[in-house]
Design brief:
Chain B: Pathway: Glycolipid biosynthesis; glycosylphosphatidylinositol-anchor biosynthesis. Chain B: This is Putative GPI-anchor transamidase. The complex is a heterodimer. By secondary structure, chain A is α+β, with helices and mostly antiparallel strands. Chain A has 2 domains: 294 residues, no CATH class; 152 residues, Immunoglobulin-like, CATH 2.60.40.740. In chain A, the strands form 5 sheets. Chain A has an 11-stranded mixed sheet. Chain B has one domain: Rossmann fold (3-Layer(aba) Sandwich), CATH 3.40.50. Chain B is 34% helix and 16% strand. In chain B, a hairpin with a 3-residue loop joins strand 6 and strand 7. The longest helix of chain B is centred in the first third of the chain and has 24 residues. The chains are: A alpha+beta, B alpha/beta. Chains A and B meet through helix 1, helix 5, helix 6 and helix 7 of A and helix 2 and helix 10 of B.
Chain lengths: 577, 347
């Protein structure tokens, strides 16, 4: 035994050293817990807002918020915040970005236009992307191009079509006040489907496996009247990166329990609940979320008389904007055995209307023919003056209109005409500020930013611009971008539902039929040319071949042939050999 | 003296043992990284990843079945183990969220509507007007603008087995893209030749489901390519059945019978290409499924542990990924442990 010790000590020690060494190699593979700096301080919260709409529909607004604290180092470890987004912000030096995918049109008349939900989530159909960069001006355009490509790969959409300068514009103050580092682009014809939602959900810490996002039953969402998924990024040195993802859906609940009351024409509004709308149950929150809440928004005073809330486990009641109450539910208490099923049952029929924005904007074409036309933007007042403006006589409303038009619709900005209540106005009376970036063929779209001051008591206003249609070689009917306007409420844009905000509306997408080439022309040209050539060469050949001999035809009565063709009409007869 | 005599003996033995163990460890360290490295020569390169490029080239609602064909293959390929990162899916139009679809976000390939092909996790890389001949050829050759993101690139190497599936309307030596341009057979042959020169694949399986599909790969002459077409020159490929609820035909015959073959398989099956070819019945297909095996070196009926469907085999694929480092380290640790024990026991 004593002899074994000196023999086995040497190699044994060596092997032990190797073993320890290999263990130390194993540790970095296993120990990736994110405990090495940067992982702390990130937070994630999720919320869902449910609200019945006046036209028998339900609004469901999902809101996910992720925040990452600022970090001094370039590389960082992330615990909750999606690394793809952080890399995007860092690589392209983004200060602010918003990307929205929308299908359907937000019905401002029925669903409201002035509450924070509609102001921030009523988006134009298709894809809309705008970004503010922290870069010198000459670097922004190439960065925008790379950003559009990166986003198209990330979100499975053709956002890379926004790369060329003909597809995006840089408004100076019409959209957001900036100092030349804003780029705005939109693709109205982009389809929105599950493939856009899949990567959007993969950015969330719990994806769609747990928490509020587990309610997203795809056929229910895409069957709705309006759905819009939006991603908003805010990045600063002091606050780090804040990522806000919202999904706004307007659904129609299938309720077979609504019955016609015989006394009046009013029909009971459909009763609904989460499990009916989404075919799934809320069985627990995302464990990584700091807070997980569901809000139910009802007009104040509806409860106990007209509406019965199905699940009365709400823990708080708040006052929302414009006369509504918010009931808060906490998702933490629910689990698989006791799912949270928020919903309402209508006891009595009720007709109400949502609060409108001060003006209803729409856009249409005037004129006929394939050569020229006019674009008209009309603003109709919605008679909600008392909510926004105090004294009608002495107030004016500032309205900002932004319009981006592609280069193939050549707008003549000097033909701008404004009329209030049908009476044409002098431009200098109404226009406070105007900025025009004229379009350049195949290079730039035309941008019009105009700030107008209207009297509060006006009923309607119309702006019109003449344009020429370019004969474009494509046969597709192409769509244009659309304007939006801001009515400033004398306060800055804030995020909370209970504070003041800016009202923004979009008009419908405008369809401009462009002149298509006349495809029958080649046929016509060929036919005419061939006819002329045939006549010319035919007669020439006839003359050259043997000449035409003029004969006198003496009609003889006795030898009148029974031919039906009077021969004296044939002045020329071909010569016979 | 006894001590003197004993000392050289243990030192000689200990030296020998030390040398032996060092040699063994050195050999271990050499052999350990080898499973995770791929050899450089193409002929002896090992298969270590699978890719799929699935292309639907038709738009408009009445070509729903082409979308359903491609999505059926997408679902099958995902089910049998290829992840989204290795699939390039090109769909020329949007059927699932089309305004004419009474089942939003759902695409079916059978009138019983039992399977929603669109599912919850579909990722389409090229869609709508991005599906052009130019982008298709760029994907295959790998020649992109520098801004194009990784998810839209075919990042295959000399150890890749690629499945290329194309469906749409086609004819004699061409395939129609988006109703406005064509991909011709010599274009495809050139692209495959370029891919082979750049070592972008080890084996390539081309499946085409269009009318006169076999003509599309008539000009191929690169080794390692296997091609299957749904019909021969002069024959049309037909749709399988009409779904009266949706209003259009929902699947093509060739794809339908290909899927019935694959639905019987799972990730660990050993199936051979010959059995796939044998499963095609010209009467049911209403056309002759033609396959071209002259460019393919290995015999098709070999059932080996690496099955002939290289793109069904997932285990090697997994080994080539990040997890190989962990496995190697664990192996090394275990071996050292065993060596320690055996050394202690032998002395």
């Amino acid at each position: 035994m004593a002899s074994l010790r000196p023999l086995s000590r040497g190699p044994f020690l060596l092997l032990l050293i190797f073993f320890v060494f290999s263990l130390s190699l194993l540790r970095p593979i296993q120990g990736n817990g994110g405990s090495d700096g940067g992982g702390g301080g990130e937070e994630f919260s999720e919320e869902l807002l449910l609200k019945p709409l006046p036209d028998r529909k339900v609004l469901a607004h999902f809101h996910f918020r992720s925040a990452a604290p600022p970090s001094a180092a370039n590389g960082r470890h992330h615990h909750l915040f999606p690394k793809a987004i952080a890399q995007l912000v860092q690589k392209f030096q983004i200060r602010e970005l918003e990307l929205s995918f929308t299908q359907g049109r937000w019905n401002y008349e029925r669903w409201g236009g002035s509450d924070p939900i509609s102001t921030r989530n009523a988006k134009p159909p298709g894809v809309e992307l705008w970004a503010l960069f922290d870069l010198p001006t000459e670097e922004i355009d190439p960065t925008w191009k790379n950003l559009t490509h990166a986003l198209s790969g990330l979100f499975c959409a053709s956002i890379n079509f926004l790369e060329s300068p003909t597809a995006y514009s840089s408004p100076y103050w019409g959209f957001l006040s900036n100092n030349g580092n804003l780029r705005y682009g939109a693709l109205p014809r982009e389809a929105v489907c599950t493939e856009n939602l899949t990567p959007w959900l993969k950015i969330l810490p719990c994806r769609d496996k747990a928490g509020i996002a587990s309610l997203l039953y795809r056929p229910s969402i895409y069957k709705g009247y309006y759905h819009s998924q939006r991603l908003r990024l805010l990045s600063s040195e002091s606050k780090g990166i804040i990522l806000e993802q919202t999904l706004t859906v307007v659904l129609q609940p299938n309720s077979y329990t609504s019955s016609l009351l015989s006394s009046s024409d009013a029909q009971l509004q459909p009763s609904w609940s989460l499990s009916q709308l989404f075919k799934k149950e809320m069985t627990g929150k995302c464990v990584l979320a700091k807070s997980s809440k569901i809000f139910l928004e009802l007009e104040r005073g509806l409860l106990e008389k007209i509406v019965e809330i199905r699940d009365d486990s709400w823990i708080g009641k708040f006052d929302g904007q414009v006369g509504s109450s918010l009931y808060e539910y906490k998702v933490d208490n629910s689990n698989e055995n006791k799912p949270l099923d928020v919903g309402i049952t209508w006891k009595l029929p009720l007709v109400w209307s949502s609060v409108h924005a001060p003006f209803q904007a729409s856009r249409f074409l005037m004129g006929s023919g394939n050569e020229r036309g006019s674009i008209a933007i009309s603003l109709q007042s919605t008679q909600t003056h008392d909510q926004y403006f105090g004294d009608l006589n002495d107030c004016t409303v500032p309205v900002i209109v932004l319009q981006v038009v592609p280069w193939y619709v050549k707008v003549y900005y000097h033909t701008l005409q404004i009329s209030i209540d049908g009476k044409p106005q002098t431009l200098s009376d109404v226009i406070e500020k105007i900025q025009v970036t004229p379009s350049e063929d195949k290079l730039l779209p035309g941008t019009l930013e105009i700030m107008l001051r209207f009297p509060c008591s006006m009923l309607s206003a119309t702006l019109s611009l003449d344009f020429d249609k370019d004969s474009y070689t494509l046969t597709n009917i192409l769509q244009m971008s659309y304007p939006d306007y801001d009515v400033s409420d004398d306060s800055s844009l804030l995020h909370n539902l209970q504070e003041k905000y800016l009202v923004r509306s979009y008009t419908e997408v405008l369809l401009v039929p462009l002149t298509t080439p006349d495809f029958s022309m080649p046929y016509n040209v060929i036919t005419f040319t061939c006819t002329v050539l045939a006549l010319y060469f035919g007669s020439l050949l006839n003359v050259l071949r043997g000449g035409l001999v003029r004969r006198e035809i003496i009609s003889q009565k006795d030898s009148a042939r029974p031919g039906l063709v009077p021969l004296y009409f044939l002045g020329y007869l071909p010569a016979k050999e | 003296m006894a001590i003197d005599r004993r000392r050289p003996k243990p030192s000689r033995r200990s030296h020998f043992v030390i040398r032996e163990t060092l040699l063994l460890l050195f050999l271990l360290l050499i052999c350990a990284p080898s499973p995770s490295s791929s050899s450089s020569s193409s002929s002896s390169s090992m298969h270590n990843n699978n890719w799929a490029v699935l292309v639907c080239t038709s738009r408009f609602w009445f070509n729903y079945r082409h979308m359903a064909n491609t999505l059926s293959l997408y679902r099958t390929v995902k089910r049998l183990g290829i992840p989204d990162e290795r699939i390039i899916l090109m769909l020329a139009d949007d059927m699932a969220c089309n305004a004419r679809n009474t089942y939003p976000a759902q695409v079916f390939n059978n009138e019983n509507h039992q399977l929603n092909l669109y599912g919850d996790n579909v990722e389409v890389d090229y869609r709508g007007y991005e599906v052009t001949v130019e982008n298709f050829l760029r994907v295959l050759t790998g020649r992109h603008d520098s801004a194009v993101p990784r998810s839209k690139r075919l990042l295959s190497d000399e150890g890749s087995h690629i499945l290329l599936y194309m469906t749409g309307h086609g004819g004699d030596e061409f395939l129609k893209f988006q109703d406005s341009e064509e991909l011709q057979s010599h274009d495809l042959a050139d692209v495959v030749k370029q891919m082979k020169e750049k070592n972008r694949f080890k084996e390539l399986l081309i499946m085409v489901d269009t009318c006169q599909a076999a003509t599309l790969f008539s000009q191929l002459n690169s080794p390692g390519v296997l091609a299957i077409g749904s019909s021969m020159k002069g024959e049309n490929s037909y749709s399988h059945h009409l779904d009266s609820d949706i209003g259009v035909s929902v699947v093509d015959r060739f794809t339908f019978y290909t899927l019935t073959f694959f639905e019987k398989l799972n990730m660990y099956s050993n199936a051979s290409l010959n059995s796939l070819f044998a499963s095609y019945n010209p009467t049911l297909l209403m056309s002759t499924a033609y396959y071209r095996t002259d460019l393919y070196e290995r015999p098709l009926n070999e059932d080996r542990s690496c099955s002939s469907y290289e793109w069904l085999k997932v285990l090697q694929d997994r080994l080539a990924d990040e997890k190989s480092d962990t496995i190697v380290m664990y192996g090394l640790g275990t071996m050292i442990l065993l060596l320690t024990v055996s050394t202690w026991l032998s002395t």
